[in-house]
Amino acid sequence: MAHLFFEHVGSQPADPVFEIGKMWRDDPNPEKINLAVGIYLDAEGKNPVMRAVKEAEKLILEEEKTKTYLPIDGSPLFLQETKKLLFTEPHTQILAAQTVGGTGALRILGQYLKLEMPRPVYVSDPTWQNHHGVFKAAGLEVKTYPYYDRINHKALKKEFFNFLDSVEKGAVILLHGCCHNPTGIDFTEDEWKFILEKFQKRGLFPFFDIAYLGLGDGLKKDRFGVDLFYQSGMEMCVAFSFSKTMDLYRDRVGALFLVNHSHTLEAMQSTIKQIIRQNYSNPPAHGALVVEKILIESHLRNIWIDELEEHRKRSIETRSIFFEAFEPWILHKKEFKEAKGFFSYLGIKKEEVFALRKESIYLLDDSRINILGINPSNLARFKEVFERLPHG
Ligand SMILES: Cc1ncc(COP(=O)(O)O)c(C=O)c1O
Q1: Is the beta carbon of 367 within 6 A of some atom in ligand 1?
Q2: Domains (ranges, CATH) in the chain?
């Protein structure tokens, strides 16, 4: 008889985004609609590989001469070019490392903070759900700050500003650089300046997560908050993802940045490298090679910029078509119309979400939708089903 070692193991709840994605995939209804995923979808409901990526991959296939390891902190060319996307030059005092997607950057930075300046990290309420899990797994205590009232569907910016006045000095505050997930509520340039003043006055530590660069107001404007803080001389950290910005989701390509003015970069880099080495040794190369190829070859870069703009415009147009079709039911009109990026709450109850699911229309339990799940061939059906629901 073999020994049973796993008799007492527990289990964990499934990740909602992936779980609902699976329900959608397994649903045989040809008219099913997926509003739950967190990826770009085109007018045919597909997530295509960008043309710039395909071209870069062809070149890489021809040119690649080795599969040897990348350095622990990744490709230097990739890091140099990614830095240019986010920060005004000169790039002094910025430590950088390539990571396994944006999630990898959050995790490594989380572990770094746990080691070097352990204190709670404050995330917006609500936030991308995985922030809680990743930071807890890194050993940090996770607390929240007010951002959005999920019952009345109102942005809570005033409450957030008041929180900045009252939170303990030196606190780590996670900020979404652009296209806040899940609300789509972002700060204006004036609000970023106001927030910066509060951070400076109160000695708070900004931790930016920027996973949708180029998909809100465009490449230059979307980095406004991150770059403003950098230019002001603040010490800060940034977790960056190419998953959405280049549609490279499964290639897992991201980067972390740490700005500091008190210590040599080499010393801090050595600790970041040790954390990476002990987690996964060194990052995968393919996605980073694609990114650096696109960013250094001007014809590929131009193709990519056009494609990113197409993505951005599709999300703006779809949001406005959706709003027109559903205006009577959307109570948070201002919040919905002004939201940036892919997401918003639809603002319906859980029972209504479940009723939609019975009709093969999938959104997250809290009614977050990816606006890009809507396209010309499914809008009418969604509206017809939605109108039939008992609302209230
Ligand atoms: C706000 C936010 N941060 C980070 C990530 C993680 O990105 P990645 O898939 O590159 O790990 C996501 C992905 O959905 C996100 O929405």
Answers
A1: no
A2: 52-298 (3.40.640.10)
In sequence order, what are the beta bridge partners of 142? 121
Ligand 1 touching residue 181 (CB < 6 A): yes
Using pLDDT thresholds of 50, 70 and 90, give the confidence band for residue 90. Answer: confident
* C-beta neighbour count of 254 within 10 angstroms: 29
**Apex CA 248: angle with CA 243 and CA 249, to 5°?**
60
Judge whether residue 185 has pLDDT over 60. Answer: yes
Strands 154-155, 148-149: pairing is antiparallel
Q: Cα separation of 388 and 20, whole Å?
A: 23
pLDDT of 392 reads: 56
Q: For position 254, what pLDDT does the model report?
A: 98
Backbone torsions φ then ψ of 70, nearest 5 degrees: -80, 165
Q: Is 244 noted as a catalytic residue in this protein? A: yes
128 part of the active site: yes
| Cβ neighbours of residue 284 closer than 8 Å, sequence gap 6 or more | 70, 100, 251, 252, 253
Percent of all residues in the chain with a pLDDT value above 70, rounded to a whole number = 100
Q: pLDDT: is 91 or 3 the higher one?
A: 3
Establish whether residue 184 lines the binding site of ligand 1, counting it when its CB lies within 6 angstroms of any ligand atom.
no
Prediction pTM value: 0.96
How far apart, in whole angstroms, are the C-alpha atoms of residue 306 and residue 84? 18
